[in-house]
């Protein structure tokens, strides 16, 4: 039977055969655990592995489905909190459809659409909390969003996961990535049986609040199965860092460069000569980020603005750089607008 498996199936079979196998899915919102990994969770449970879902937010900042279903325009704090409780309950019902007990859900209760701000303002405390939640689960495989996922909570979840794993006691768990919003390059297909697919479909229906306006989209997504990107070795030196785009003139003063290394975060205004702690930013002749000394850990960089917008998806994105005293900030986009 192993001979008919694709490489990802074989890798998972080996991971699940290890003594003390434990799979943890890091879900930024309720429904991500089902959409991204409902099949994998079933497979791990059937193999006898410990299975956990670490839910970072309750998905409470989800106004348009709430307005539609509750026939309200204004959403106050109490209504938003009630929506979050509804979505967490939906996640528990979905896990039951997958054959998993409510006890496998571990909720952090962090603010929906607020994970990037946590990195900017509360990085050390967030890493302490995330490490405290993950360590008792003793994961041998962690499944989390990829860095390129277009939802800002998803990409931020990946940054937080990577930062925690950078100081993980040996042996370090394997890390797989998934994309819910957007696509993953180099993703490998994970084959689901007909029964696994059917149970995953029933689990999706438990997330009724998310199907009211986007049911067709998510049902099609579930029908297509799952795919993952196994993480490569931790980043070392010699990497060129490219931003998705560089700010044009109208954004000057409205955005900053958010830089994360180890357990520290800095924000540099996007202007010539900006300085924050050991960092300095130059824009001419080519944007570059300089460090007072060579970083001791991989660096994550993101163009960041606190200015609210109607579009939640993130075309700015995070980039990961190596441990170099200077990183070139070129753009892989022909448009700087």
TrEMBL record:
InterPro entries: GlcNAc_PI_deacetylase-related, LmbE-like_dom_sf
Gene3D superfamilies found in the cross-reference section: LmbE-like
SUPFAM superfamilies: LmbE-like
Highest rank taxon of the organism: Bacteria
MF term (GO), any: hydrolase activity, acting on carbon-nitrogen (but not peptide) bonds, in linear amides
PANTHER family: BLR3841 PROTEIN, N-ACETYLGLUCOSAMINYL-PHOSPHATIDYLINOSITOL DE-N-ACETYLASE-RELATED
Protein name: GlcNAc-PI de-N-acetylase
Taxonomy of the source species: Bacteria, Pseudomonadati, Pseudomonadota, Gammaproteobacteria, Lysobacterales
